[in-house]
């Protein structure tokens, strides 16, 4: 074998479940969430959280609406023990929140765990042992019966300790760790053994948790395993079926979603998927997936900045900019066709209708993101993005032909800097190339008279400081001015297109005018602004002439 040799590996065995039901089901409500950030997330950190960090993350989890929170492994470490004590002694656990703690099926650890929980009103004690073939054979050196015994004894010890403290409302949870790498008939056998000890009922159920401790198959196989379990375990009504997926193959969320279809009631996971190796199942992603389907996720994720700040501070792990739903770049379109589609859809989206915006699966405003971030311009962007930015930030509604021309200018500038062009730079490029105020031709003054059904204009235009007196007639001020320019310069000038709009409202409103001229067979565009619409239109004409002048390199009027 060479170093990189796939023959070293075997495919995960599939489950024979010909009448599987999960593929034809849909998710219609949020599962019961259990956060394991403070335990599974914590145990995977380079530097596990101290009590202060745990306190901050706890406060966030409660604020987001988690009702079941695994707070640690109190028998394993002093900070976890101290944190449990602080929660209880400082009365930090809201009435509707239940703390959960993890422990191995080992007597000394179980005893210490119950010590840590003294005085709690309600708690979930979560005991586990590994059931998979490889763990049986290579870690524990036990056969099936030996592994089942560990589970049975662990369950009995948990029950014994709980019985000493009837003042607390206990819930028992058992995890067949490495469930997804265990033979299904054996998992059912072990869980039956645990339930024989606990004697759960529909009124007082236990939690049976089915982890894909290491994700090693496609999510459909995991869903088959969960459905197998759900349909082969006795007393299904006396247990809450919980799943706990990891993300080794990048499908932690998908596996949990399919598991819910397959009958899971409860999902364990962490914020942004922090956890062992490639992480736990990401609750924020799964909850937002539900939200985007019109389902209440039963978690308040409306303030991502706070969630990101607290989790980053507590885990030391930064959020990837493309993290689903919450990454800095996920509501940003750089490419031209996406920008164009977003701009058109946003224009048509009505307040009271269902969200229908291409490339934006949810309204970024729901997560406190504004449309500022939606469209950013680089060399991959087209006219849509450029137009969007100018309209959003400067109130300029460019006609299509001008969008096309400006986009070419912006693209060149972006290529030159090999990167993003911000809104102010786009605006500056627009002014520099299409607006006359710094050009060679400038309107000094004009007068318009209505004569015999026509307009006559007398205008003073400077070209490079040389003043020229122009006179012309036409239908309206614009065509009279064009007529004057043609007479003076001897050039053939036609207006190909013209548009104008107000910027702002009230007495401060400015007029924007955009014109495209055909000058001796060549098209040139220009734009101008003025408090007076006629002035704006005449200046826009001079802007276009300035472009012609710059392109031809010769004077227009003095030529
Ligand atoms: C998939 C998961 O995430 S499971 C949770 C894993 N999380 C953690 O382990 C974090 C906290 N754990 C720890 O700090 C330590 O493991 C402790 C303090 C709990 C225990 O430490 P230690 O007793 O020193 O040893 P260690 O964890 O290596 O224990 C291994 C022993 O426990 C046994 N064991 C491991 N898991 C279990 C279990 N769930 N139930 C019963 N016995 C177990 C092993 O077979 C091994 O036995 P051996 O010593 O006879 O060979
Ligand atoms: C203890 C169990 C639930 C676990 O963390 C896992 O299997 O990943």
Compute the number of structural domains. 3
Separate helix tally: 17
Write down the CATH class of the largest domain.
Alpha Beta
* Residue runs with pLDDT of under 50 for 5 or more positions: none
What sort of overall outline do the alpha carbons produce when their principal axes are compared? elongated
List the ions, cofactors and other small molecules found in this model. Answer: acetyl coenzyme *A, 3-methyl-2-oxobutanoic acid
Which CATH architecture of the largest domain?
Alpha-Beta Barrel
What can you see in these coordinates?
The protein has 559 residues and is of the alpha/beta class. It folds into three domains: 27-315, Aldolase class I (TIM Barrel, Alpha-Beta Barrel); 336-434, no CATH class; 437-552, 2-Layer Sandwich (Double Stranded RNA Binding Domain), CATH 3.30.160. It contains 17 helices and 14 strands. The strands form three sheets. Strands 1-2-3-4-5-6-7-8 form an eight-stranded parallel barrel, surrounded by eight helices. A three-stranded antiparallel beta sheet has the order 9-10-11. Strands 12-13-14 form a three-stranded antiparallel beta sheet, with helices on both faces. Residues 40, 43, 73, 76, 104-106, 109, 128-129, 140, 150, 177, 213 line the site of acetyl coenzyme *A.
Give the secondary structure arrangement, pairings included.
Blueprint: E1 32-35, H1 37-43, H2 51-64, E2 68-72, H3 78-89, E3 98-104, H4 107-116, E4 122-130, H5 133-140, H6 144-163, E5 169-177, H7 184-198, E6 206-212, H8 219-232, E7 239-245, H9 252-261, E8 266-269, H10 283-291, H11 304-315, H12 336-348, H13 383-394, H14 400-417, H15 423-434, E9 441-451, E10 454-463, E11 466-474, H16 477-489, E12 493-503, E13 510-519, E14 522-530, H17 533-552
Parallel strand pairs: 1-2, 1-8, 2-3, 3-4, 4-5, 5-6, 6-7, 7-8
Antiparallel strand pairs: 9-10, 10-11, 12-13, 13-14
The protein binds acetyl coenzyme *A and 3-methyl-2-oxobutanoic acid.
């Amino acid at each position: 074998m060479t170093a990189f040799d796939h023959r070293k590996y075997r495919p995960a065995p599939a489950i024979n479940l010909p009448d599987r039901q999960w593929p034809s089901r849909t998710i219609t409500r949020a599962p019961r969430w259990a956060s394991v950030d403070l335990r599974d997330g914590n145990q995977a950190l380079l530097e596990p959280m101290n009590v202060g960090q745990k306190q901050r993350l706890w406060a966030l989890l409660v604020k987001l609406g988690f009702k079941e929170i695994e707070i640690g492994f109190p028998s394993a470490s002093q900070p976890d023990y101290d944190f449990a004590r602080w929660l209880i002694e400082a009365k930090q656990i809201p009435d509707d929140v239940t703390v959960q703690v993890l422990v191995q099926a080992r007597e000394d650890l179980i005893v210490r765990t119950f010590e840590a929980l003294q005085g709690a009103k309600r708690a979930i004690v979560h005991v586990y042992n590994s059931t998979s073939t490889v763990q049986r054979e290579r870690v524990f050196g036990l056969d099936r019966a030996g592994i089942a015994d560990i589970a049975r004894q662990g369950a009995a010890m948990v029950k014994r300790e709980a019985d000493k403290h009837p003042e607390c409302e206990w819930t028992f949870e058992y995890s067949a760790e490495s469930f997804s790498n265990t033979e299904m008939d054996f998992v059912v056998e072990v869980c039956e053994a645990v339930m024989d000890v606990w004697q759960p009922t529909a009124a007082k159920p236990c939690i049976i948790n089915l982890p894909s401790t290491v994700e090693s198959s496609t999510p459909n196989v995991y869903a088959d395993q969960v459905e197998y379990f759900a349909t082969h375990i006795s007393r299904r009504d006396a247990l809450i079926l919980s799943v706990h997926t990891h993300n080794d193959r990048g499908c932690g969320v998908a596996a949990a979603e399919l598991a819910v279809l397959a009958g899971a009631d409860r999902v364990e996971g962490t914020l942004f998927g922090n956890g062992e190796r490639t992480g736990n199942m990401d609750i924020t992603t799964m909850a937002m997936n539900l939200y985007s389907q019109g389902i209440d996720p039963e978690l308040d994720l409306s303030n991502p900045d706070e969630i990101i700040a607290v989790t980053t501070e507590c885990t030391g792990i930064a959020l990837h900019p493309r993290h689903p739903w919450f990454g800095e770049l996920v509501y940003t379109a750089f490419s031209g066709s996406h920008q164009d589609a977003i701009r058109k859809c946003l224009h048509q989206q009505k307040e009271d209708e269902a969200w229908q915006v291409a490339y934006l699966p949810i309204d970024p405003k729901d997560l406190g993101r504004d449309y500022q971030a939606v469209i950013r311009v680089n060399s991959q962007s087209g006219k849509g993005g450029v137009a969007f930015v100018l309209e959003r930030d400067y109130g300029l509604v460019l006609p299509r032909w001008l969008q096309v021309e400006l986009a070419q200018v912006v693209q060149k500038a972006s290529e030159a800097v090999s990167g993003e062009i911000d809104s102010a730079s786009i605006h500056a490029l627009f002014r520099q190339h299409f607006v006359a105020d710094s050009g060679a031709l400038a309107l000094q003054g004009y007068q318009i008279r209505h004569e015999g059904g026509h307009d006559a204009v007398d205008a003073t235009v400077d070209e490079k400081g040389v003043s020229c007196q122009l006179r012309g007639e036409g239908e309206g001020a614009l065509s009279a001015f064009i007529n004057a320019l043609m007479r003076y310069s001897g050039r053939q000038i036609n207006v190909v297109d013209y548009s104008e709009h107000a910027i702002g409202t009230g007495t401060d409103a400015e007029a924007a005018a955009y014109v495209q001229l055909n000058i001796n067979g060549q098209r040139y565009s220009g734009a101008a602004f003025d408090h007076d619409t006629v002035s704006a239109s005449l200046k826009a004409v001079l802007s276009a002439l300035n472009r012609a002048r710059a392109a031809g390199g010769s004077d227009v009027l003095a030529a």
